[in-house]
């Protein structure tokens, strides 16, 4: 296995959707592998990905000689691939948005392979499918690794090198810590935006500005994917929602009772945090 | 008063912040008025606006010969300007985000002048002050007019011509209907985003992507301005929040109980509406 600056031999991508397709595209654009092979149940998507240069070939199974296997299937489908590939010689990683349930699901069926590195690139789009693939999707993206005690250092290094070559930064966290944080920073906003769109009616659409557009953009995300994510992380999400509901009720009560001191203090703190977040990015 | 394609004589802008400054900048860039005079309590902001070409001059009062007076002060300061200018010969409009309370506040102090056109350009930015002025802010922006029974047609036409010259589209609504709709499309998203930021802590900031950034952008908005807007429209906002809380609870319960049929139906409907909103824009 290539763990340094040398070109990869064979990269296998299981699941050629937005993320898998973007990995293929980024790898081909940067010429990071001699061969990129896709494993994709949807024959049309797979064909499209080959014709458009995201993959070199499609296969119905992961090649024996794959050095690196990117499992880009939905979170609830990752565990069975990990178990199936337990004896494969390559390094495996997934890209699921929820780490605990994936790891627990593997553990229920057998030992977690040392060469499996649970990964989560915090990146995405409200679009889906290989047609939306973007070779720059991982530029400036944070990829969280949630290794277990037995995860091999060499496998982690190989993954870190791979993601960094795609322009990403890597970060290590415990899986429970990851899932609790992502419940706040990603899953809760999606839940809130989906619920918000329910009450938007057609006549409202003429009365919207840039704020509405940005606030609701994530509600256009893939419903199947997001149902799975929210369901898998439902324990952490419920905790995040409980805290949110308390905060919302306190702020709403300040408005309702015209309590300017409390209301302004809450809004000022929120605005200051959001402004600081922009500075952190830059 | 100029109601057609001729250039305005004098435009007065009361309150030279983001909106007032952007009106000045847009008018100067398009050469729509012979003279743009600003009335602004903050002497430094006023001076900056003159030096940077947003205004021709500053004044401590609205010139007698102003053809058009743009009241760009905060919503709760509009009524006293309207009353003070009741005998002025020019057409007046405001840009407040909440119309009912402004109109009621004028009515409590006297008759609403026929030449006052309550306006709301649905446009803005999380930025504030004349330094953030943008001459293109009203391009493709919808400006809602909420005229009363006695509002003069000529005044409405003059305002419509003015806003259209800045690139905007105009739309007429009753003020109560406007306030109920904007509670949903603008004030509720701000309330939700402010409340959301309360639970975001510093370690979360490394774990955010584009979805978080877009969803929370409006929480960086001017706290004083938004406290006033939410407080003024608190009746309509409370109604919108009640409906929202019901929808949120239903969706959260579907996730909690793993009710895929109901949860997927809700999320699919939300995503379809959001996708349709993008098509409406284009």
Instruction: Kindly report the name of the CATH homologous superfamily of the largest domain in chain A.
Output: NAD(P)-binding Rossmann-like Domain
| CATH-derived architecture of the largest domain in chain A | 3-Layer(aba) Sandwich
Rg of chain A, Cα atoms, Å:
21 Å
**What topology, given as strand order, has the largest sheet of chain A?**
3-2-1-4-5-6-7-8
* Number of domains as seen in the coordinates of chain A: 2
Q: Tally the beta strands of chain A.
A: 8
Under CATH at level 1, the class of the largest domain in chain A stands as Alpha Beta
Quaternary:
homodimer
- Quick one: which chains have the greatest interface? A-B, 84 and 84 residues
H/E series of chain A: EHEHEEHEHEEHEHHHHH
* Proportion of helical residues of chain A: 40-55%
Biggest sheet layout of chain A:
8 strands, mixed
Structural class of chain A: alpha/beta
Briefly note the CATH topology name of the largest domain in chain A: Rossmann fold
How much of the sequence lies in strands of chain A comes to 5-15%
Count of DSSP H/I helices of chain A: 10
Uncertain segments of chain A of ≥5 residues (pLDDT<50)?
Answer: none
Mean pLDDT of chain A: 94
Label the overall shape of chain A: globular
Distance between the termini of chain A: 36 Å
